[in-house]
Amino acid sequence: MWRDARLIAAKDLRVEWVSRVLTTQVVPFGLLVLILFGFGISPDLQTFEPGEATSKVAVLEQVAPGLFWLAVLFSALLAIGRSFAIEAVDGNLDALRLAGLDPAGIFLGKAGAVLVELLLLEVVLGFGSFVLYGAPLDNAVLLVTVVVSATVGIASAGTLYAALAAGLRVRDTLVPLLLLPVLAPVLLGASLATEAALFGPASDGWPWLAALGAFAVLYLGAGILAFGSLLEDS
Amino acid sequence: MTTTGVKGSSEHHDAGNDRSAHTGTRGSRTLGIVTLVSVAVLLLFALVVSPPEATQGDAARLFYIHVPSAIVCLYLAFSITLVGSIMYLWKGTIGWDLIAGSAAEVGVLFLFFTLVTGMLWGKPTWGTYWQWDPRLTSTAVSFVLYLGYLAVRRLDMDPVLRSRRAAVLGIVSFANLIIVRYSVQWWRSLHQGPTLDPLDMQISGVMLFTWVFGVFTMLLVFSWLLLHRFRVAWLEHQLAEAGIDVAIRERRNEAGGDAALGGAI
Amino acid sequence: MGWEYVVPGYLVVFGGLGVYTLTLIRRGRALSRQVSPEKRRFLGEGRS
User: Fold this and answer.
1) Mean pLDDT, 10 residues at a time, over chain A (234 residues)?
2) Predicted-complex ipTM score
3) DSSP readout, B82-141?
Protein backbone atom coordinates (compact mmCIF):
# COMPACT_ATOMS: atom_id res chain seq x y z
CA MET A 1 0.00 0.00 0.00
CA TRP A 2 2.71 2.47 0.93
CA ARG A 3 4.78 1.67 -2.07
CA ASP A 4 1.83 2.31 -4.35
CA ALA A 5 1.05 5.47 -2.44
CA ARG A 6 4.54 6.80 -2.98
CA LEU A 7 4.34 5.93 -6.65
CA ILE A 8 1.08 7.75 -7.16
CA ALA A 9 2.08 10.74 -5.09
CA ALA A 10 5.31 11.06 -6.99
CA LYS A 11 3.47 10.82 -10.27
CA ASP A 12 0.95 13.46 -9.32
CA LEU A 13 3.60 15.82 -8.04
CA ARG A 14 5.67 15.29 -11.12
CA VAL A 15 2.66 16.13 -13.30
CA GLU A 16 2.23 19.30 -11.31
CA TRP A 17 5.91 20.13 -11.56
CA VAL A 18 5.76 19.86 -15.30
CA SER A 19 2.39 21.48 -15.92
CA ARG A 20 2.56 23.99 -13.09
CA VAL A 21 -1.18 24.38 -13.11
CA LEU A 22 -1.41 24.82 -9.38
CA THR A 23 1.37 27.32 -9.15
CA THR A 24 0.19 29.40 -12.06
CA GLN A 25 -3.53 29.11 -11.53
CA VAL A 26 -4.59 27.94 -8.11
CA VAL A 27 -2.15 29.93 -6.00
CA PRO A 28 -3.05 33.17 -7.77
CA PHE A 29 -6.68 32.23 -7.25
CA GLY A 30 -6.08 31.89 -3.54
CA LEU A 31 -4.37 35.25 -3.38
CA LEU A 32 -7.20 36.74 -5.36
CA VAL A 33 -9.70 35.40 -2.85
CA LEU A 34 -7.72 36.98 -0.03
CA ILE A 35 -7.76 40.29 -1.84
CA LEU A 36 -11.45 40.04 -2.64
CA PHE A 37 -12.22 39.49 1.01
CA GLY A 38 -10.69 42.89 1.57
CA PHE A 39 -13.05 44.31 -1.01
CA GLY A 40 -16.03 42.56 0.46
CA ILE A 41 -15.19 43.29 4.07
CA SER A 42 -14.09 46.85 4.29
CA PRO A 43 -10.57 47.26 5.72
CA ASP A 44 -11.85 50.39 7.40
CA LEU A 45 -14.28 48.62 9.64
CA GLN A 46 -13.09 48.81 13.15
CA THR A 47 -14.14 47.04 16.24
CA PHE A 48 -13.09 46.96 19.82
CA GLU A 49 -10.46 44.44 20.63
CA PRO A 50 -12.04 41.61 22.58
CA GLY A 51 -11.67 42.27 26.24
CA GLU A 52 -10.54 45.86 25.78
CA ALA A 53 -13.01 48.66 25.99
CA THR A 54 -10.78 51.29 24.52
CA SER A 55 -8.44 50.05 21.84
CA LYS A 56 -9.84 49.49 18.40
CA VAL A 57 -8.63 47.09 15.80
CA ALA A 58 -9.51 46.40 12.21
CA VAL A 59 -12.25 43.87 11.68
CA LEU A 60 -10.28 42.42 8.81
CA GLU A 61 -7.40 41.63 11.10
CA GLN A 62 -9.65 39.97 13.62
CA VAL A 63 -11.28 37.76 11.06
CA ALA A 64 -8.05 36.99 9.24
CA PRO A 65 -7.87 33.38 10.46
CA GLY A 66 -11.31 32.62 9.09
CA LEU A 67 -10.58 34.36 5.81
CA PHE A 68 -7.33 32.51 5.42
CA TRP A 69 -9.05 29.17 5.87
CA LEU A 70 -11.87 30.11 3.54
CA ALA A 71 -9.35 30.99 0.87
CA VAL A 72 -7.63 27.66 1.50
CA LEU A 73 -10.92 25.78 1.22
CA PHE A 74 -11.89 27.36 -2.07
CA SER A 75 -8.44 26.82 -3.50
CA ALA A 76 -8.51 23.25 -2.25
CA LEU A 77 -11.63 22.61 -4.31
CA LEU A 78 -9.64 23.53 -7.37
CA ALA A 79 -6.60 21.52 -6.35
CA ILE A 80 -8.68 18.44 -5.65
CA GLY A 81 -10.59 18.80 -8.88
CA ARG A 82 -7.27 19.03 -10.67
CA SER A 83 -6.03 15.90 -8.95
CA PHE A 84 -8.80 13.94 -10.62
CA ALA A 85 -8.84 15.89 -13.84
CA ILE A 86 -5.38 14.62 -14.68
CA GLU A 87 -6.74 11.08 -14.45
CA ALA A 88 -9.73 11.67 -16.61
CA VAL A 89 -7.73 11.59 -19.78
CA ASP A 90 -7.47 8.14 -21.32
CA GLY A 91 -9.22 6.50 -18.42
CA ASN A 92 -6.22 6.60 -16.19
CA LEU A 93 -8.02 5.52 -13.09
CA ASP A 94 -9.04 2.30 -14.77
CA ALA A 95 -5.53 1.75 -15.95
CA LEU A 96 -4.19 2.25 -12.46
CA ARG A 97 -6.63 -0.19 -11.08
CA LEU A 98 -5.91 -2.79 -13.71
CA ALA A 99 -2.22 -2.38 -13.18
CA GLY A 100 -2.84 -4.00 -9.84
CA LEU A 101 -2.20 -1.01 -7.66
CA ASP A 102 -3.73 -1.16 -4.24
CA PRO A 103 -6.70 1.23 -4.19
CA ALA A 104 -5.88 2.30 -0.67
CA GLY A 105 -2.45 3.14 -1.92
CA ILE A 106 -3.88 5.15 -4.78
CA PHE A 107 -5.97 7.03 -2.27
CA LEU A 108 -3.07 7.79 0.00
CA GLY A 109 -0.92 8.77 -2.93
CA LYS A 110 -3.42 11.18 -4.39
CA ALA A 111 -4.34 12.60 -1.01
CA GLY A 112 -0.67 12.90 -0.19
CA ALA A 113 0.08 14.83 -3.33
CA VAL A 114 -2.84 17.17 -2.67
CA LEU A 115 -1.59 17.57 0.89
CA VAL A 116 1.84 18.68 -0.28
CA GLU A 117 0.34 21.05 -2.80
CA LEU A 118 -2.02 22.55 -0.24
CA LEU A 119 0.72 23.00 2.33
CA LEU A 120 2.78 24.95 -0.16
CA LEU A 121 -0.28 26.98 -1.04
CA GLU A 122 -0.86 27.71 2.62
CA VAL A 123 2.63 29.07 3.05
CA VAL A 124 1.91 31.56 0.32
CA LEU A 125 -1.57 32.40 1.59
CA GLY A 126 -0.31 32.69 5.14
CA PHE A 127 2.21 35.20 4.04
CA GLY A 128 -0.53 36.94 2.06
CA SER A 129 -2.77 37.12 5.12
CA PHE A 130 0.05 38.54 7.13
CA VAL A 131 0.56 41.27 4.57
CA LEU A 132 -3.02 42.02 3.62
CA TYR A 133 -4.71 41.75 6.98
CA GLY A 134 -1.94 42.51 9.37
CA ALA A 135 -2.46 39.25 11.17
CA PRO A 136 0.46 38.52 13.44
CA LEU A 137 2.35 35.28 13.08
CA ASP A 138 2.63 33.89 16.53
CA ASN A 139 2.69 30.66 18.46
CA ALA A 140 4.45 28.82 15.69
CA VAL A 141 4.12 25.34 17.12
CA LEU A 142 0.38 25.48 17.50
CA LEU A 143 0.01 27.27 14.21
CA VAL A 144 2.00 24.74 12.24
CA THR A 145 0.33 21.72 13.81
CA VAL A 146 -3.08 23.21 13.22
CA VAL A 147 -2.31 23.92 9.60
CA VAL A 148 -0.93 20.47 9.02
CA SER A 149 -3.74 18.52 10.66
CA ALA A 150 -6.47 20.62 9.09
CA THR A 151 -4.86 20.15 5.69
CA VAL A 152 -4.59 16.41 6.12
CA GLY A 153 -8.31 16.38 6.82
CA ILE A 154 -9.04 18.54 3.79
CA ALA A 155 -6.87 16.44 1.51
CA SER A 156 -8.28 13.08 2.59
CA ALA A 157 -11.93 14.08 2.70
CA GLY A 158 -11.49 15.91 -0.58
CA THR A 159 -9.89 12.97 -2.34
CA LEU A 160 -12.59 10.65 -1.07
CA TYR A 161 -15.41 12.87 -2.24
CA ALA A 162 -13.79 13.66 -5.55
CA ALA A 163 -13.61 9.93 -6.21
CA LEU A 164 -17.34 9.78 -5.64
CA ALA A 165 -17.78 12.22 -8.47
CA ALA A 166 -14.92 11.00 -10.64
CA GLY A 167 -15.60 10.64 -14.29
CA LEU A 168 -18.82 12.57 -14.16
CA ARG A 169 -19.47 15.63 -16.23
CA VAL A 170 -21.01 17.32 -13.23
CA ARG A 171 -17.93 16.78 -11.12
CA ASP A 172 -17.07 20.45 -10.85
CA THR A 173 -20.45 21.42 -9.49
CA LEU A 174 -21.00 18.32 -7.43
CA VAL A 175 -17.77 18.13 -5.48
CA PRO A 176 -18.07 21.59 -3.90
CA LEU A 177 -21.64 20.85 -2.85
CA LEU A 178 -20.65 17.56 -1.30
CA LEU A 179 -17.34 18.56 0.18
CA LEU A 180 -17.96 21.92 1.81
CA PRO A 181 -20.57 20.81 4.34
CA VAL A 182 -18.21 18.01 5.28
CA LEU A 183 -15.35 20.46 5.73
CA ALA A 184 -17.42 22.98 7.67
CA PRO A 185 -16.22 21.54 10.98
CA VAL A 186 -12.64 21.72 9.73
CA LEU A 187 -13.10 25.34 8.82
CA LEU A 188 -14.52 25.89 12.26
CA GLY A 189 -11.82 24.13 14.18
CA ALA A 190 -8.96 25.47 12.10
CA SER A 191 -10.18 29.07 12.30
CA LEU A 192 -10.72 28.92 16.03
CA ALA A 193 -7.41 27.23 16.67
CA THR A 194 -5.58 29.67 14.43
CA GLU A 195 -7.32 32.53 16.16
CA ALA A 196 -6.17 31.13 19.47
CA ALA A 197 -2.64 30.82 18.18
CA LEU A 198 -2.47 34.36 16.84
CA PHE A 199 -4.55 36.37 19.27
CA GLY A 200 -6.01 34.61 22.19
CA PRO A 201 -4.60 32.21 24.70
CA ALA A 202 -2.94 29.35 22.91
CA SER A 203 -4.53 26.95 25.35
CA ASP A 204 -7.86 27.58 23.67
CA GLY A 205 -6.50 26.14 20.50
CA TRP A 206 -5.30 22.73 21.62
CA PRO A 207 -8.74 21.15 22.03
CA TRP A 208 -9.63 22.18 18.50
CA LEU A 209 -6.36 20.79 17.28
CA ALA A 210 -7.32 17.48 18.80
CA ALA A 211 -10.64 17.63 16.97
CA LEU A 212 -8.87 18.40 13.71
CA GLY A 213 -6.58 15.46 14.27
CA ALA A 214 -9.51 13.17 14.90
CA PHE A 215 -11.18 14.37 11.73
CA ALA A 216 -8.02 13.76 9.74
CA VAL A 217 -7.63 10.25 11.09
CA LEU A 218 -11.29 9.51 10.43
CA TYR A 219 -11.13 10.54 6.82
CA LEU A 220 -7.83 8.87 6.17
CA GLY A 221 -9.42 5.71 7.44
CA ALA A 222 -12.59 6.23 5.48
CA GLY A 223 -10.62 6.84 2.33
CA ILE A 224 -8.48 3.76 2.77
CA LEU A 225 -11.54 1.63 3.29
CA ALA A 226 -13.90 3.08 0.72
CA PHE A 227 -11.62 4.05 -2.12
CA GLY A 228 -11.47 0.53 -3.40
CA SER A 229 -15.20 0.19 -3.88
CA LEU A 230 -15.46 3.65 -5.38
CA LEU A 231 -12.74 2.98 -7.92
CA GLU A 232 -14.22 -0.34 -8.82
CA ASP A 233 -17.20 1.48 -10.11
CA SER A 234 -15.71 4.22 -12.19
CA MET B 1 -42.20 2.79 14.00
CA THR B 2 -42.29 0.73 10.88
CA THR B 3 -44.66 0.60 8.00
CA THR B 4 -47.71 -1.47 8.15
CA GLY B 5 -47.54 -2.34 4.47
CA VAL B 6 -49.49 -5.38 3.65
CA LYS B 7 -48.39 -8.10 1.32
CA GLY B 8 -49.47 -8.25 -2.21
CA SER B 9 -51.98 -6.31 -4.18
CA SER B 10 -55.20 -7.82 -3.16
CA GLU B 11 -57.39 -5.30 -4.85
CA HIS B 12 -59.02 -6.76 -7.89
CA HIS B 13 -58.56 -4.93 -11.12
CA ASP B 14 -60.36 -4.73 -14.39
CA ALA B 15 -58.27 -4.99 -17.45
CA GLY B 16 -59.94 -2.02 -19.02
CA ASN B 17 -60.23 0.29 -16.06
CA ASP B 18 -57.12 -0.22 -14.04
CA ARG B 19 -58.34 0.78 -10.64
CA SER B 20 -55.51 -0.88 -8.86
CA ALA B 21 -53.00 1.44 -10.41
CA HIS B 22 -52.00 3.23 -7.26
CA THR B 23 -49.62 2.73 -4.42
CA GLY B 24 -52.14 2.13 -1.69
CA THR B 25 -52.84 -1.10 0.12
CA ARG B 26 -55.32 -1.87 2.83
CA GLY B 27 -52.59 -1.46 5.39
CA SER B 28 -51.31 1.84 4.12
CA ARG B 29 -54.84 3.14 3.79
CA THR B 30 -55.38 2.45 7.44
CA LEU B 31 -52.13 4.12 8.31
CA GLY B 32 -53.13 7.09 6.21
CA ILE B 33 -56.42 7.51 7.97
CA VAL B 34 -54.91 7.16 11.41
CA THR B 35 -52.30 9.72 10.42
CA LEU B 36 -54.86 12.21 9.20
CA VAL B 37 -56.84 11.88 12.40
CA SER B 38 -53.68 12.31 14.38
CA VAL B 39 -52.80 15.45 12.48
CA ALA B 40 -56.24 16.87 13.12
CA VAL B 41 -56.00 16.15 16.81
CA LEU B 42 -52.54 17.65 16.95
CA LEU B 43 -53.69 20.81 15.28
CA LEU B 44 -56.55 21.06 17.67
CA PHE B 45 -54.34 20.70 20.68
CA ALA B 46 -51.46 22.75 19.41
CA LEU B 47 -53.45 25.67 18.17
CA VAL B 48 -56.51 25.71 20.36
CA VAL B 49 -56.46 23.62 23.48
CA SER B 50 -53.00 24.26 24.81
CA PRO B 51 -52.38 27.56 26.50
CA PRO B 52 -49.92 30.20 25.37
CA GLU B 53 -46.61 29.90 27.12
CA ALA B 54 -45.62 32.16 29.96
CA THR B 55 -42.94 34.25 28.29
CA GLN B 56 -43.21 33.43 24.61
CA GLY B 57 -46.93 33.57 24.26
CA ASP B 58 -48.42 31.87 21.31
CA ALA B 59 -45.17 31.74 19.41
CA ALA B 60 -44.31 28.71 21.47
CA ARG B 61 -46.90 26.74 19.55
CA LEU B 62 -44.29 26.29 16.88
CA PHE B 63 -42.44 24.16 19.34
CA TYR B 64 -45.02 21.44 18.88
CA ILE B 65 -43.97 20.84 15.33
CA HIS B 66 -40.46 22.19 15.25
CA VAL B 67 -38.94 19.77 17.71
CA PRO B 68 -40.87 16.72 16.56
CA SER B 69 -39.89 17.22 12.94
CA ALA B 70 -36.32 17.65 14.02
CA ILE B 71 -36.37 14.43 15.95
CA VAL B 72 -37.97 12.53 13.12
CA CYS B 73 -35.60 13.53 10.44
CA LEU B 74 -32.40 13.65 12.34
CA TYR B 75 -32.73 10.57 14.44
CA LEU B 76 -34.94 8.44 12.34
CA ALA B 77 -34.82 9.30 8.68
CA PHE B 78 -31.09 9.53 8.27
CA SER B 79 -30.53 6.49 10.42
CA ILE B 80 -32.67 4.61 7.98
CA THR B 81 -30.56 5.98 5.18
CA LEU B 82 -27.47 4.83 7.03
CA VAL B 83 -28.77 1.34 7.63
CA GLY B 84 -30.15 1.05 4.11
CA SER B 85 -26.83 2.11 2.68
CA ILE B 86 -24.87 -0.36 4.76
CA MET B 87 -27.25 -3.18 3.91
CA TYR B 88 -27.18 -2.34 0.26
CA LEU B 89 -23.40 -2.46 0.13
CA TRP B 90 -23.48 -5.71 2.01
CA LYS B 91 -26.35 -7.59 0.39
CA GLY B 92 -26.83 -5.82 -2.90
CA THR B 93 -30.63 -6.05 -2.86
CA ILE B 94 -32.04 -2.97 -4.52
CA GLY B 95 -34.73 -2.58 -1.86
CA TRP B 96 -32.15 -1.36 0.63
CA ASP B 97 -30.92 1.29 -1.73
CA LEU B 98 -34.44 2.43 -2.45
CA ILE B 99 -35.36 2.76 1.16
CA ALA B 100 -32.18 4.65 1.92
CA GLY B 101 -32.99 7.15 -0.77
CA SER B 102 -36.64 7.44 0.16
CA ALA B 103 -35.86 8.05 3.81
CA ALA B 104 -33.35 10.71 2.88
CA GLU B 105 -35.78 12.54 0.67
CA VAL B 106 -38.51 12.61 3.29
CA GLY B 107 -35.87 13.44 5.86
CA VAL B 108 -34.72 16.47 3.91
CA LEU B 109 -38.31 17.62 3.68
CA PHE B 110 -38.59 17.42 7.46
CA LEU B 111 -35.25 19.19 7.80
CA PHE B 112 -36.65 22.01 5.75
CA PHE B 113 -39.64 22.21 8.06
CA THR B 114 -37.35 22.20 11.05
CA LEU B 115 -35.43 25.13 9.65
CA VAL B 116 -38.48 27.16 8.72
CA THR B 117 -40.27 26.63 12.01
CA GLY B 118 -37.03 27.25 13.85
CA MET B 119 -36.58 30.61 12.17
CA LEU B 120 -40.20 31.58 12.63
CA TRP B 121 -39.94 30.67 16.26
CA GLY B 122 -36.73 32.59 16.61
CA LYS B 123 -38.05 35.87 15.32
CA PRO B 124 -40.44 36.57 18.18
CA THR B 125 -38.14 34.97 20.71
CA TRP B 126 -34.76 36.36 19.76
CA GLY B 127 -35.81 39.29 17.66
CA THR B 128 -34.09 37.99 14.56
CA TYR B 129 -34.68 35.11 12.21
CA TRP B 130 -31.19 33.79 12.71
CA GLN B 131 -29.05 33.68 15.75
CA TRP B 132 -26.36 31.12 14.90
CA ASP B 133 -27.61 29.01 17.72
CA PRO B 134 -26.08 25.55 17.73
CA ARG B 135 -29.13 23.53 16.83
CA LEU B 136 -30.35 25.67 14.00
CA THR B 137 -26.89 26.16 12.55
CA SER B 138 -26.03 22.49 12.48
CA THR B 139 -29.46 21.80 11.04
CA ALA B 140 -28.71 24.20 8.21
CA VAL B 141 -25.43 22.47 7.42
CA SER B 142 -27.10 19.07 7.61
CA PHE B 143 -29.72 20.30 5.19
CA VAL B 144 -27.14 21.10 2.56
CA LEU B 145 -25.29 17.91 3.36
CA TYR B 146 -28.23 15.74 2.49
CA LEU B 147 -29.20 17.85 -0.47
CA GLY B 148 -25.86 16.74 -1.80
CA TYR B 149 -26.79 13.14 -1.13
CA LEU B 150 -30.03 13.59 -3.03
CA ALA B 151 -28.13 15.20 -5.88
CA VAL B 152 -25.91 12.15 -6.18
CA ARG B 153 -28.96 9.90 -6.34
CA ARG B 154 -30.11 11.72 -9.45
CA LEU B 155 -26.87 11.60 -11.33
CA ASP B 156 -27.05 10.51 -14.90
CA MET B 157 -25.01 7.37 -14.74
CA ASP B 158 -25.23 3.63 -14.55
CA PRO B 159 -27.87 2.83 -11.92
CA VAL B 160 -25.89 0.19 -10.10
CA LEU B 161 -22.82 2.37 -9.83
CA ARG B 162 -24.98 5.24 -8.75
CA SER B 163 -26.57 3.20 -6.01
CA ARG B 164 -23.20 2.09 -4.76
CA ARG B 165 -21.82 5.59 -4.63
CA ALA B 166 -24.97 6.86 -2.99
CA ALA B 167 -24.63 4.11 -0.41
CA VAL B 168 -21.07 5.11 0.45
CA LEU B 169 -22.24 8.69 0.66
CA GLY B 170 -25.19 7.70 2.83
CA ILE B 171 -22.84 6.18 5.36
CA VAL B 172 -20.30 8.98 5.37
CA SER B 173 -22.98 11.64 5.51
CA PHE B 174 -24.33 10.18 8.72
CA ALA B 175 -20.90 10.43 10.26
CA ASN B 176 -20.73 14.01 9.05
CA LEU B 177 -24.10 14.71 10.59
CA ILE B 178 -22.74 13.75 13.97
CA ILE B 179 -19.47 15.60 13.51
CA VAL B 180 -21.26 18.77 12.47
CA ARG B 181 -23.68 18.56 15.35
CA TYR B 182 -20.98 18.24 17.95
CA SER B 183 -18.52 20.72 16.55
CA VAL B 184 -21.15 23.42 16.11
CA GLN B 185 -22.46 22.79 19.60
CA TRP B 186 -18.98 23.06 21.04
CA TRP B 187 -18.29 26.18 19.06
CA ARG B 188 -21.39 28.02 20.10
CA SER B 189 -20.99 27.02 23.69
CA LEU B 190 -17.69 28.87 23.74
CA HIS B 191 -18.84 32.09 22.24
CA GLN B 192 -22.36 32.25 23.48
CA GLY B 193 -23.27 35.02 25.74
CA PRO B 194 -26.56 34.74 27.52
CA THR B 195 -28.81 33.96 24.60
CA LEU B 196 -32.36 32.98 24.86
CA ASP B 197 -32.84 29.31 24.32
CA PRO B 198 -36.36 28.99 23.03
CA LEU B 199 -36.61 25.63 24.64
CA ASP B 200 -36.44 27.33 28.01
CA MET B 201 -40.11 27.27 28.62
CA GLN B 202 -42.45 26.40 31.34
CA ILE B 203 -44.38 23.42 30.18
CA SER B 204 -47.67 22.50 31.68
CA GLY B 205 -49.36 19.13 31.48
CA VAL B 206 -51.37 19.88 28.39
CA MET B 207 -48.36 21.29 26.63
CA LEU B 208 -46.32 18.24 27.39
CA PHE B 209 -49.04 16.02 26.10
CA THR B 210 -49.30 18.08 22.92
CA TRP B 211 -45.60 17.86 22.39
CA VAL B 212 -45.50 14.12 22.83
CA PHE B 213 -48.47 13.82 20.58
CA GLY B 214 -46.62 15.97 18.08
CA VAL B 215 -43.76 13.50 18.03
CA PHE B 216 -46.20 10.64 17.62
CA THR B 217 -47.99 12.39 14.77
CA MET B 218 -44.81 13.28 12.95
CA LEU B 219 -43.68 9.69 13.20
CA LEU B 220 -46.93 8.57 11.63
CA VAL B 221 -46.64 11.15 8.88
CA PHE B 222 -43.06 10.13 8.25
CA SER B 223 -43.95 6.48 8.07
CA TRP B 224 -46.74 7.01 5.62
CA LEU B 225 -44.61 9.23 3.43
CA LEU B 226 -41.68 6.85 3.59
CA LEU B 227 -43.84 3.92 2.63
CA HIS B 228 -45.27 5.65 -0.37
CA ARG B 229 -42.02 7.20 -1.43
CA PHE B 230 -40.50 3.76 -1.29
CA ARG B 231 -43.27 2.33 -3.42
CA VAL B 232 -42.81 5.07 -5.96
CA ALA B 233 -39.10 4.37 -6.02
CA TRP B 234 -39.79 0.68 -6.46
CA LEU B 235 -42.07 1.38 -9.41
CA GLU B 236 -39.46 3.62 -10.98
CA HIS B 237 -36.94 0.86 -10.54
CA GLN B 238 -39.26 -1.63 -12.20
CA LEU B 239 -39.75 0.66 -15.13
CA ALA B 240 -36.03 1.21 -15.49
CA GLU B 241 -35.43 -2.52 -15.47
CA ALA B 242 -38.15 -3.07 -18.02
CA GLY B 243 -36.53 -0.44 -20.16
CA ILE B 244 -33.23 -2.23 -20.00
CA ASP B 245 -34.85 -5.55 -20.85
CA VAL B 246 -36.48 -4.02 -23.88
CA ALA B 247 -33.22 -2.52 -25.00
CA ILE B 248 -31.42 -5.82 -24.64
CA ARG B 249 -34.10 -7.66 -26.56
CA GLU B 250 -33.94 -5.14 -29.34
CA ARG B 251 -30.23 -5.44 -29.46
CA ARG B 252 -30.48 -9.18 -29.74
CA ASN B 253 -32.97 -8.92 -32.55
CA GLU B 254 -30.71 -6.53 -34.37
CA ALA B 255 -27.83 -8.93 -34.13
CA GLY B 256 -29.96 -11.59 -35.82
CA GLY B 257 -31.43 -14.64 -34.10
CA ASP B 258 -28.73 -17.26 -34.52
CA ALA B 259 -25.87 -14.98 -35.10
CA ALA B 260 -26.35 -13.41 -31.68
CA LEU B 261 -23.10 -13.49 -29.84
CA GLY B 262 -23.43 -15.75 -26.89
CA GLY B 263 -24.39 -14.49 -23.49
CA ALA B 264 -25.18 -10.85 -23.81
CA ILE B 265 -26.35 -10.89 -20.24
CA MET C 1 -48.93 37.49 20.41
CA GLY C 2 -46.82 35.49 18.06
CA TRP C 3 -49.66 34.22 15.91
CA GLU C 4 -48.23 35.98 12.89
CA TYR C 5 -45.37 33.53 13.08
CA VAL C 6 -47.31 30.50 14.12
CA VAL C 7 -49.74 30.60 11.26
CA PRO C 8 -47.16 30.80 8.46
CA GLY C 9 -45.17 28.12 10.22
CA TYR C 10 -48.03 25.67 10.39
CA LEU C 11 -49.06 26.56 6.87
CA VAL C 12 -45.64 25.84 5.50
CA VAL C 13 -45.36 22.54 7.32
CA PHE C 14 -48.78 21.12 6.72
CA GLY C 15 -49.17 22.73 3.36
CA GLY C 16 -45.81 21.33 2.35
CA LEU C 17 -46.75 17.91 3.64
CA GLY C 18 -49.99 18.10 1.71
CA VAL C 19 -48.27 19.06 -1.51
CA TYR C 20 -45.69 16.34 -1.11
CA THR C 21 -48.35 13.77 -0.33
CA LEU C 22 -50.37 14.68 -3.38
CA THR C 23 -47.28 14.55 -5.57
CA LEU C 24 -46.45 11.11 -4.25
CA ILE C 25 -49.92 9.82 -4.82
CA ARG C 26 -50.04 11.14 -8.35
CA ARG C 27 -46.64 9.79 -9.19
CA GLY C 28 -47.61 6.50 -7.67
CA ARG C 29 -50.66 6.23 -9.82
CA ALA C 30 -48.94 7.29 -13.01
CA LEU C 31 -46.13 4.81 -12.49
CA SER C 32 -48.44 2.01 -11.43
CA ARG C 33 -50.29 2.28 -14.65
CA GLN C 34 -47.12 1.66 -16.56
CA VAL C 35 -45.96 -1.31 -14.59
CA SER C 36 -47.62 -4.68 -14.91
CA PRO C 37 -49.62 -5.67 -11.86
CA GLU C 38 -47.38 -8.46 -10.56
CA LYS C 39 -44.42 -6.19 -10.35
CA ARG C 40 -46.08 -3.38 -8.51
CA ARG C 41 -45.41 -4.35 -4.94
CA PHE C 42 -42.10 -4.97 -3.35
CA LEU C 43 -43.61 -7.69 -1.23
CA GLY C 44 -45.99 -8.96 -3.87
CA GLU C 45 -45.68 -11.91 -6.17
CA GLY C 46 -43.11 -11.68 -8.87
CA ARG C 47 -40.65 -9.76 -6.78
CA SER C 48 -37.57 -9.19 -8.87
Assistant:
1) 85 87 89 91 76 74 90 94 79 71 87 94 91 81 90 94 83 90 93 87 85 93 86 63
2) 0.84
3) HHHHHHHHHH--HHHHHHHHHHHHHHHHHHHHHHHHHHHHHHHHHSSS----HHHHHHHH
